[in-house]
Amino acid sequence: MSLHPILVALRKHKAGVVLIALQIALTLAIVCNAVFIIYSRIEKVNRPTGINETNLLLVEQQWVSASNGDSAAGIQQFDSLLRNDLDTLTRLPDVESVAPINSIPLLNSSWTGGIALKPGPGLSDKNNVHTAYYFGDEHMVDTLGVHIVAGRNFTSAEINNKGMRDQSEPNLVIVTQDLAKKLFPKDSAVGKVVYLDGSNTPSTIIGIVERMQIPAVGWGDNFTWYSTLVPTRVNAIFSRYIVRTRPGRLDSVRRSIVPALYNANPMRVLDDDDAVRSFTDIRENAYRADVGMAVLMGVVCLILLAVTAAGIVGLTSFWVGQRHRQIGVRRALGARKIDILHYFQLENLMIAGGGAVIGIGLALGLNRWLMSSFEMQRMPLYYVLAGLVVVMVLGQLAVFVPARRASNVPPVVATRSV
Amino acid sequence: MLAYYLRLGIRSLRRNPILTSLMVLAIGIGVAASMTTYAVFRAVSGNPLPDKSTQLLVPQIDIWGPQSRSEGRDMPDALSYTDAMALMREHRAARQTSIYPVNYTAIPPDASREPFSVSGYATYTDFFPMFEAPFQYGGGWGAAQDAAHAAVVVISADLNQQLFGGANSVGRTIRLDDHDYQVVGVLENWNPHPRFYDVNNSDGFSDPPDFFLPFTHAVDLHTETAGNSNCYGSSGRAPGWDGWVQSDCVWVSFWAELPDAAAVQAYQSYLQGYGAEQNRAGRFHWPANAKLHDLMQWMDYEKVVPPESRISLLLSLGFLLVCLVNTVGLLLAKFMRRSAEIGVRRALGASRREIWTQFLAEAAMVGVSGGVVGLALTGVGILSIGLVFDPDYARLAHMSPELVGLTLLSALVATIGAAFYPTWRAARVQPAWQLKSN
Prior knowledge:
- Chain A is an alpha+beta fold.
- Helices cover 49% and strands 17% of the residues of chain A.
- In chain A, α2 packs across α11 and α3 crosses α6.
- Chain B is of the alpha+beta class.
- Chain B has 2 domains: 178 residues, no CATH class; 195 residues, no CATH class.
- In chain B, strands 1, 2, 3, 4, 5, 6, 7, 8, 9, 10 and 11 form an 11-stranded mixed β-sheet that branches.
């Protein structure tokens, strides 16, 4: 079929053509970017933290106490309270292991610092790598369920304790594989010496864990996998514990923790709702905005496609009605039904194609602009190509109903004058 | 005549139910999406203190030097204890306060009730008049009590309800951790959105604080900040609390009230002078650098409006745009289908102006219907905001009369705007041509 008659006919309907093309262009631009946002959110939400996320509980509590965390006696008092709590929790039925910890991945409560290969506060030291610290004891690795891929875990003799504001640095640390590679790209980091937070005290890396995310949510994208484990119980007026339960016993352990802690020592505050949380809850809470955003974008995309399809149906129906007689004449002159159908399909293909070309430009421009104002990533080209296919198919689906109606116009119409 | 055209408009809408409902739905959905996201956006980006937001300023002092910025850090968004106290002492602003968030455990007088956590702020007396905090009973403490490090407290309406059943509790005592405090004032329900004076520590939209107590007293008790503390190159500082307050760690928020532009200018040069003095004293090894942000600039600097809110507002505006383009197309189809009718009217003497009025009236009917649909959908949208946004933000957005009016108005204006081109085409129909062809 020759394209010439279609082009000539389209020139008679400039406004309608421009409107459909514009609508397709805008739809393509918005849908591509929205799907890209959905995909990046889902990718972020689904990435594993590196810890064993099932059967894990986090306990947060605060003591009611007169002592303050700066005097040596106060620190030792907090430490004995903390060790009593560990003891209480360990003896609960169905508990596999317990460890004190300052934070866990996705909790968004971080203790961060810099890790360097040279001692002293060398501020401009390019080897100063941003890291997040996890303070805990010898049970921390097992309770979190992270895998040691090189070196070894802390032993109980290597664990010490300190107050919140104590500036002393640990002798030993365990780091993640990503952090180890960043610090020592060439060879194994086990046994190597590093300096934390610009101090002069050397810390030796004794083990490497496969993967462990930092606690930060919504920031810290430049050091997401650079965690450092420190063999120190941190003593303050509040404390956090992680509890690994036997499989399937999470809920019963969760219920027994608060009474057991109050029973052991009533001088404390445990929040009714948040004192004991499963890791599943923490993950859900951390990514709520991301999931919500993905759902919103998804709904908007679907409605947008539906609106665009409806617009195409509406305008094409109008054109079919307007050309009723011409269609009748063509049919009377020997055009088959399929020719009429193809005419409208081809016409739509051309309009949608034109719109899509503009849409590709708009989509890339919109992405560029989002990158500059919302720290978004560059959209890969195949999103635009997939979007192109989607709007073309959508156009063909939408045009089918009015085009079929057009093909059913009987040739006899040509002979009627009114 | 207009009433007649409006009636004609309704009649015409009924004649073509599928096309009409497509248009009405498109406008309704577009408007509802924009209005729902706008409600959230407005809730989180509003000015919490419109009458004096330009008079409230936050200083930033470059205490870490240019080197810290080369590593990607900005100037600290809080002050060190040393600098905050220096500014307090020299008192160059009309009113001024240092603030930091603290958490305590409240011990109810009734021994049978369990202790519970409370959060609040350590501040100076100027805090209350500066930020226009409304009192239910009593008032703030005085400057003398700041100087005396007095154990006094201002409590929230909520805490007053919990501890005293809502009675006037001024003069009574509450116990926080191991210390007694005399209540000097009870606030009304007061929680500005965003909580501008604490956005460097929180998202600014959380539950209201329970109490306020003198900064000087909280520091005496070595109360830790419950907010952020940022340290840079301060390892090797002296141990304990003394080392902490002498360090270059930043954890104190500072606000100054400066009545006019001249005062702001003077304060800016005072801060530069302060930096220069620190430089001469050997503490800063770089040229003095200080910034002042007024309240709304500070909200912007601290990125208080969540990016989700901005992106979804933009997305729904784009969405509304597509819906409008769609409406232009459908109206065009609808109007041009009636070329014959227009031709007859024109031939019978109707002026172009009459055609304009008739078709814009018809579009207005589409707009009103779209507005009503949009209103219903906005209601649904507001109810389901919690699924998408943080509950802290979601509960701020609600259906106000203002939002209802805005929804209807924007549907009407958008539709009439979209109808201009189709109506122009309709008005240009040549009567002779239409009459001839049939």
